[in-house]
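Q: Here's a chain of 96 amino acids. Please give me its 3D structure as C-alpha cells.
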Amino acid sequence: MAKFVNRESLAQVLCDNLNISKKDASYAIELIFNEMSESLASDGYVDISGFGKFEIFFRKERMGINPVTKERIMIPATKLPKFRPSQTLKNKCNNR
C-alpha cells in the first residue's frame, strides 16, 4: 500500500523522532511551509538538496475559448509554482 503524507503525518514523524509535543511539531511544519510559500510569493525559489527545487513559472497571456458559448476570451498571464525533482529523488523513485 502506498504511503500517504500530509501535515499531520509529518508532525507525527517529528513527534516520534525528536520527542517533542505534537503542538510543537505542528508549529515547526507550519513555519517551514509558510517560509516556502513566502519565498515563492515574492518570486524567489526553494531549493531542498536531495529533494528538488520549487520555482515560479510565468505563463503568458493567451487566447482561449469559453466551452459553453464558444466565445474567444483572453486568459490573463499568471504565475504558478513549479517543482523540479532532484536526481537523487528521481533515482529513489526508480529504485536506483
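Q: Can you summarize the key feature?
A: The radius of gyration is 19 Å.
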